[in-house]
């Protein structure tokens, strides 16, 4: 059911302002305060009066929302009032909102473990993106993505085992996982072969896509940034899930292989599966955008390679089916969300943006 909202033109709006000020003794400042208070929850565009934007900024400050003001680089303020509006908004953001919001987030994280706080802060830093309407990523963004990849690799190689518990939190598999394992497991004589091939695929196809994906894409720098962001965020979320759940691997539970230490309790969810699908979806979207006439071949090839990688983890008794399914879904969602957002962000024309916008991000948890 649709509702038609009444509208007024500029002359009628002038008359409304006159009546409010002259007849009802309500100042324009009060009207703008009231409008800004209600619209501060939404994306606010500067409009007929500069105080409108300031009022929304002030209310966002009071609500401690993590927001970002973005000024379109292609347009200049048309009046001194708009210049004062933008300048004041910038000062409020830099000196008050950012400081208070950061302090609030950090104080809420004090009760969590150091590694969890580090992951949250790093993900927030990677997703603190710059202005809408850019032609290509800035050097700072590319550097931030590279640092994220380095930290993600460091966590995987050196930090994850340190934080893994010595005893599993989840051990016995459910009935469905047991039945599927019995059907898909290659046996002790061939399990090492499945593990070797899964590693070859993850290194030869998925991880190498951090290089060949951007090289093959038409927008190389943008593809490189997206690949780095997806890999870093997906890797950290995967390791966070592994440390939190500490699910016992099937080879350790059924005794088909020798214990390997802390990795024996890192079954959920599959890192091979999440990385394979996240990189497959990311590069399928990027390459399909560059070569739309070959979209079907690109998607089928990359998703097939990711699916084979995930299957071999079950065949090698490294994971249960639920591990690879959840890992594949998580990796795909992360990749789709980041890639879709970045493509839309860089495809937007600066000429279509208003004088300034306010975006806000609501932290989870």
Describe the structure.
A two-stranded antiparallel ribbon has the order 1-2. The two termini are 35 Å apart. 66% of the residues lie in helices and 3% in strands. The longest helix is centred in the N-terminal third of the chain and has 30 residues, at 80-109. The protein is built from 14 helices and two strands; from the N terminus they run αααβαααααααααααβ. α12 (271-290) runs antiparallel to α13 and α13 runs antiparallel to α14 (321-347). It has helices at 10-23, 28-39, 50-63, 80-109, 114-126, 139-163, 175-184, 191-207, 209-216, 220-245, 250-253, 271-290, 295-315, 321-347; strands at residues 66-71, 356-361. The chain has 365 residues and is mostly helical.
Summarize this entry quickly:
The chain has helices at residues 10-23, 28-39, 50-63, 80-109, 114-126, 139-163, 175-184, 191-207, 209-216, 220-245, 250-253, 271-290, 295-315, 321-347; strands spanning 66-71, 356-361.
